[in-house]
Amino acid sequence: MGQQFSSRTNPVAEVLSQLKQVARGPKDGYTLFMGTVANVINGVLQPDLDLDFARDFAPIVYATSSPNILVVHPSTGVSNVKDLISLLKANPGKIFYGSSGVGTSPHLSASCQYAGGTQMVHVPYSGSAQA
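Above: the chain sequence. Below: its structure as C-alpha cells.
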C-alpha cells in the first residue's frame, strides 16, 4: 500500500458505534469498515439505527464467504432434511436451535422453518463462539 495503516478489532457491543463513526467520517478513502451480512441485516431489522447502508457505504470488495450449515446431534436419528422436518412436525415447539444472535444469518436461515409448517424454539447466543 505504500504507507502505514492501522487495524482495530472491536467487541460486538462497539460495532454500531464504529459503524456510525466510519459513516460520519471523512469520505477520503482512508477509513474503511470490514463488515458482515449481520451489519446489513441489523440495518433492516432496526430501522432506528440512523444508518442507511445503501447511502452511507459503498462496497469495494467481496472478501469472504460464510455459509450457514445445518447440523443435528447424532442421537436424533435424523440423517436428512426430510427426516428433520418430520421430527419437527411431530414435536412442535419442543425442539431448540441455537444461533449466534437475534437477526444473524443463522437465525434468519432457521426462520424458514415457518414456511415448512414447523416450529422450533430459538436460543440466541451473544456470538458465534458461544453458539
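The chain is about 30% helix and 5% strand.
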